[in-house]
Specification:
Length: 130
């Protein structure tokens, strides 16, 4: 059995050091599955499945640091959604890493299209290094 929360923590720790150092006021949580409200609010791209969700003010938002008493941004990783898509424990580990990185990119101000471009580049670079 996979320790899902540990996988999420490990995925965060594999981020480049300069990214880790710039992450601030963000909580990364695990939830079993998204609520109906979250599904409707965000929309989904994979058969009605939501793997992760970023909620907050991206670091690129003007005035972000001027908001006193602001709650942390929140990244939620949905365990059941990921486990349904992954076929093996290794697949779960890989997918968790991709989803964590994807949602952290939103924290840094990348929109969905920009994140997809980054992911495609990452996959190309990864395949070149094999």
């Amino acid at each position: 059995m996979v320790d899902f929360e540990k996988l999420v923590q490990e995925a965060t720790l594999t981020l480049p050091k300069e990214i880790q150092e710039k992450m601030e006021n963000v909580a990364i949580c695990v939830a079993p599955s998204p609520s109906q409200f979250e599904l409707e609010k965000v929309g989904t791209r994979i058969n009605g499945t939501l793997l992760g969700l970023y909620q907050g003010f991206p670091r690129t938002t003007w005035g972000r640091n001027r908001i006193s008493g602001r709650l942390p941004d929140k990244i939620t990783i949905f365990q059941e959604s990921i486990e349904k898509l992954a076929k093996t424990e290794e697949d779960i580990k890989k997918l968790v890493r991709i989803v964590v990185w994807h949602e952290i990119a939103h924290h840094f101000g990348f929109n969905e299209k920009q994140v997809r471009v980054l992911e495609a580049k990452w996959r190309r670079d990864k395949n070149k290094s094999k």
